Amino acid sequence: MSAQSGPGSRRRQTDADFVLDTRSLGRAPGSIRQVHRVVTAPEKIGLDLIAIPAGAEIDLDLTLQAVSEGVLVTGSVSAPIEGECSRCLESFTDDLELEITELFAYPDSATEQTTEEDEIYRLVDDMIDIEPVVTDAVGLELPLQPLCEPDCAGLCPECGVRMAIAGPDHTHEILDPRWAGLAKFASETPSSGVSDAPSDVDRSLADRHGSASSTTEEK
Questions:
Q1: Average pLDDT value for residue range 68-90
Q2: Can you give the residue range of the structural domain that contains 88?
Q3: Number of domains comprising the chain
Q4: What sign results for the dihedral spanned by CA atoms 157, 163, 165, 168?
Q5: 213 occurs within a structural domain
Q6: Is the pLDDT assigned to residue 192 strictly greater than 60?
Q7: Cα 64 to Cα 25: distance, rounded to the nearest angstrom
Q8: What is the mean pLDDT of residues 11-30?
Q9: Tens-place pLDDT, residues 113-169
Q10: Does residue 158 belong to any structural domain of this protein?
Q11: Cα end-to-end span (Å), the chain
Q12: Which of 21, 162, 164, 206 has the lowest tally of Cβ within 10 angstroms?
């Protein structure tokens, strides 16, 4: 967390986009200002597999409330998201809505003086930049392993086809590797059925029997 209200806060001193001007709010505890605006994501916001894409419209519906130590920002953030399913690898779109609550400390307040730079956001010239707040909240809200559908069946481990396309009857006949050698042996072994054709042994015995008969007749 930045010591200022966000990266580049000193360069953006206008009440626009993610930067909010609190001067009209005042510092009287209990003062409230409603802010509703639509901003464009300057870059991809989120995680590697799922995020708010650059150029997407982010809807901010916020309440700014002055408290003794700073300005409390609460409200909702909604935006479209694009992702890649971690199971079937297909692209998908969805909508994201989340709630934020963040205190921006006044300069020289007790909170500002007793906290480290990365522990809390600060106002800078009465301006607060909620872009880092939104970025952090989106990153925490999105899943590390996004799914296109809660019951996505993923890919077939054998051929890689999407199971949503292949259907529940998609299967592969997989031979147990322990029997693979036997199956190969069986396919290479000639049929063991009984044949009507005489064997070489049978023909040899027949020839000998014929020769013996001829000798007897001559005598």
A1: 95
A2: 9-141
A3: 1
A4: positive
A5: no
A6: no
A7: 8
A8: 85
A9: 888 877 889 999 999 999 999 999 999 999 999 999 998 888 887 787 777 777 677
A10: no
A11: 124
A12: 206
Distance of CA 80 to the CA centre of its chain: 15
The total of other beta-carbon atoms located within 10 Å of residue 97's CB is 11
Q: Are 162 and 149 in contact (CB under 8 A)?
A: no
In a domain, 217, yes or no: no
Evaluate whether residue 99 is within a structural domain: yes
Q: What is the longest distance spanned by two Cα atoms in the chain? A: 146
Three-class HEC string of the chain:
CCCCCCCCHHHCCCCCCCEEECCCCCCCCCCEEEEEEEEECCCCEECCCEEECCCCEEEEEEEEEEECCEEEEEEEEEEEEEEECCCCCCEEEEEEEEEEEEEEECCCCHHHHCCCCCCCEECECCEEECHHHHHHHHHHHCCCCCCCCCCCCCECCCCCCEHHHHCCCCCCCCCCHHHHHHHHHHHHCCCCCCCCCCCHHHHHHHHHHHHHHHHHHHC
Which tens digit of pLDDT belongs to each residue from 84-100? 999 999 999 999 999 99
- Other C-beta atoms closer than 10 Å to the C-beta of 184 total 11
Residue keyed to tokens 């400390």: 105
Q: Is the pTM of this model over 0.85?
A: no
Backbone angles phi, psi at 26, to 5 degrees: 75, 180
Place of tokens 């901003």: 39
Q: Are 50 and 139 in contact (CB under 8 A)?
A: no
* Confidence band for 13, pLDDT divided at 50, 70 and 90: low
Structure tokens at 63: 């309440």
